[in-house]
Amino acid sequence: MELKTLYREIVNEHNLHPEHKHDLENPTMVLEGVNPSCGDDINLQLRIRDGVIEDAAFNGSGCAISQASADMMIDLILGKSEEEALRLAQIFMGMIQGTATEEEIEELDEAAALQDIAHMPARVKCAVLGWRTMREMVEKLEGE
Ligand code: ZN
Question: Please, what are the domains in the chain?
Answer without folding.
Answer: 3-143 (3.90.1010.10)
